[in-house]
Specification:
This protein is mostly helical. Among the domains are: 22-57; 89-151, no CATH class. Helices cover 64% and strands 0% of the residues. It is built from four helices and no strands. Helix 3 (67-112) runs antiparallel to helix 4. The longest helix has 46 residues, at 67-112.
Length: 151
Protein backbone atom coordinates (compact mmCIF):
# COMPACT_ATOMS: atom_id res chain seq x y z
CA UNK A 1 0.00 0.00 0.00
CA UNK A 2 1.58 3.31 -1.03
CA UNK A 3 2.14 6.07 1.45
CA UNK A 4 -0.49 8.82 1.19
CA UNK A 5 1.09 12.25 0.90
CA UNK A 6 -0.80 15.41 1.66
CA UNK A 7 -1.07 17.81 -1.24
CA UNK A 8 -3.22 20.90 -0.52
CA UNK A 9 -3.72 21.56 -4.24
CA UNK A 10 -5.50 18.22 -4.76
CA UNK A 11 -8.46 19.00 -2.52
CA UNK A 12 -9.65 22.41 -3.75
CA UNK A 13 -13.38 22.09 -3.03
CA UNK A 14 -13.86 18.35 -3.34
CA UNK A 15 -13.65 17.86 0.43
CA UNK A 16 -17.02 19.63 0.82
CA UNK A 17 -18.75 16.89 -1.20
CA UNK A 18 -17.06 13.93 0.49
CA UNK A 19 -19.44 11.26 1.81
CA UNK A 20 -17.14 8.54 3.16
CA UNK A 21 -15.67 8.97 6.65
CA UNK A 22 -18.03 11.81 7.54
CA UNK A 23 -21.20 12.28 9.56
CA UNK A 24 -23.29 12.74 6.42
CA UNK A 25 -24.49 9.10 6.16
CA UNK A 26 -25.65 9.17 9.78
CA UNK A 27 -27.39 12.54 9.38
CA UNK A 28 -29.06 11.55 6.09
CA UNK A 29 -30.75 8.57 7.77
CA UNK A 30 -31.94 10.48 10.86
CA UNK A 31 -35.72 11.17 10.75
CA UNK A 32 -35.41 14.02 13.26
CA UNK A 33 -33.07 15.89 10.91
CA UNK A 34 -35.54 15.62 8.04
CA UNK A 35 -38.48 16.62 10.26
CA UNK A 36 -36.67 19.74 11.44
CA UNK A 37 -35.57 20.59 7.91
CA UNK A 38 -39.12 20.27 6.53
CA UNK A 39 -40.48 22.34 9.43
CA UNK A 40 -37.90 25.04 8.79
CA UNK A 41 -38.66 25.17 5.05
CA UNK A 42 -42.40 25.25 5.81
CA UNK A 43 -42.00 28.20 8.16
CA UNK A 44 -39.89 30.03 5.58
CA UNK A 45 -42.53 29.45 2.92
CA UNK A 46 -45.27 30.68 5.28
CA UNK A 47 -43.22 33.77 6.08
CA UNK A 48 -42.72 34.49 2.38
CA UNK A 49 -46.44 33.95 1.64
CA UNK A 50 -47.48 36.30 4.45
CA UNK A 51 -45.06 38.98 3.27
CA UNK A 52 -46.43 38.78 -0.28
CA UNK A 53 -50.00 39.20 1.03
CA UNK A 54 -49.00 42.38 2.86
CA UNK A 55 -49.34 40.95 6.37
CA UNK A 56 -46.56 41.44 8.92
CA UNK A 57 -45.58 37.74 8.94
CA UNK A 58 -43.59 36.08 11.67
CA UNK A 59 -41.98 38.35 14.25
CA UNK A 60 -38.35 39.29 13.68
CA UNK A 61 -35.74 38.28 16.22
CA UNK A 62 -33.62 40.96 17.79
CA UNK A 63 -30.08 39.65 17.92
CA UNK A 64 -29.58 41.20 21.34
CA UNK A 65 -32.09 38.67 22.67
CA UNK A 66 -29.99 35.79 21.34
CA UNK A 67 -26.74 36.81 23.07
CA UNK A 68 -27.43 35.17 26.43
CA UNK A 69 -28.72 31.82 25.03
CA UNK A 70 -25.81 31.74 22.56
CA UNK A 71 -23.23 32.25 25.29
CA UNK A 72 -24.92 29.67 27.52
CA UNK A 73 -25.05 27.19 24.64
CA UNK A 74 -21.36 27.75 23.91
CA UNK A 75 -20.48 27.19 27.56
CA UNK A 76 -22.64 24.05 27.71
CA UNK A 77 -21.12 22.57 24.54
CA UNK A 78 -17.54 23.23 25.68
CA UNK A 79 -18.23 21.87 29.18
CA UNK A 80 -20.06 18.79 27.89
CA UNK A 81 -17.45 17.92 25.25
CA UNK A 82 -14.55 18.36 27.67
CA UNK A 83 -16.35 16.19 30.23
CA UNK A 84 -16.97 13.47 27.60
CA UNK A 85 -13.33 13.47 26.52
CA UNK A 86 -12.15 13.36 30.12
CA UNK A 87 -14.32 10.32 30.82
CA UNK A 88 -13.23 8.66 27.57
CA UNK A 89 -9.53 9.09 28.32
CA UNK A 90 -10.01 7.89 31.89
CA UNK A 91 -11.75 4.72 30.64
CA UNK A 92 -9.12 4.29 27.93
CA UNK A 93 -6.35 4.50 30.53
CA UNK A 94 -8.05 1.86 32.66
CA UNK A 95 -8.52 -0.46 29.66
CA UNK A 96 -4.87 -0.06 28.67
CA UNK A 97 -3.85 -0.81 32.26
CA UNK A 98 -5.95 -3.97 32.38
CA UNK A 99 -4.58 -5.12 29.03
CA UNK A 100 -1.02 -4.42 30.20
CA UNK A 101 -1.56 -6.52 33.33
CA UNK A 102 -2.88 -9.42 31.24
CA UNK A 103 0.15 -9.14 28.93
CA UNK A 104 2.52 -9.20 31.90
CA UNK A 105 0.70 -12.20 33.32
CA UNK A 106 0.95 -13.99 29.95
CA UNK A 107 4.67 -13.23 29.79
CA UNK A 108 5.24 -14.58 33.31
CA UNK A 109 3.19 -17.71 32.61
CA UNK A 110 5.06 -18.37 29.36
CA UNK A 111 8.43 -17.76 31.02
CA UNK A 112 7.93 -19.99 34.08
CA UNK A 113 5.74 -22.84 32.79
CA UNK A 114 6.48 -25.13 29.85
CA UNK A 115 3.34 -27.31 29.73
CA UNK A 116 0.87 -25.88 27.18
CA UNK A 117 -2.20 -27.18 28.98
CA UNK A 118 -1.08 -25.69 32.28
CA UNK A 119 -0.33 -22.36 30.57
CA UNK A 120 -3.80 -22.30 29.03
CA UNK A 121 -5.45 -23.11 32.38
CA UNK A 122 -3.52 -20.26 34.01
CA UNK A 123 -4.38 -17.79 31.24
CA UNK A 124 -8.07 -18.57 30.81
CA UNK A 125 -8.81 -17.41 34.35
CA UNK A 126 -7.32 -13.99 33.57
CA UNK A 127 -9.06 -13.72 30.21
CA UNK A 128 -12.38 -14.66 31.81
CA UNK A 129 -11.85 -12.09 34.57
CA UNK A 130 -11.24 -9.37 31.97
CA UNK A 131 -14.39 -10.35 30.08
CA UNK A 132 -16.46 -10.28 33.27
CA UNK A 133 -14.99 -6.92 34.24
CA UNK A 134 -15.71 -5.34 30.84
CA UNK A 135 -19.24 -6.80 30.88
CA UNK A 136 -20.00 -5.12 34.21
CA UNK A 137 -18.38 -1.82 33.20
CA UNK A 138 -20.43 -1.60 29.99
CA UNK A 139 -23.87 -1.75 31.55
CA UNK A 140 -26.95 -2.63 29.53
CA UNK A 141 -29.18 -0.62 27.23
CA UNK A 142 -31.64 0.19 30.02
CA UNK A 143 -29.06 1.99 32.12
CA UNK A 144 -28.64 -0.82 34.59
CA UNK A 145 -25.81 -3.19 35.31
CA UNK A 146 -25.28 -6.15 33.01
CA UNK A 147 -25.80 -9.50 34.57
CA UNK A 148 -23.78 -12.55 33.68
CA UNK A 149 -25.74 -15.75 33.37
CA UNK A 150 -24.32 -19.28 33.36
CA UNK A 151 -25.41 -19.60 29.71
Amino acid sequence: MPVMLYNPDDEQLRFLCRWKSTLLPMVATDPLFWFLLVTHVGLLMKQRALLHEGEPGLPTLEWKAALVPTSLLTFFVVFYVSNCYERFFQLFGCCVGITGCVHEWAYLVRTHFSDKELRWNLMRVMIGAVQVHYAFVGGDDNGGIKSITPA
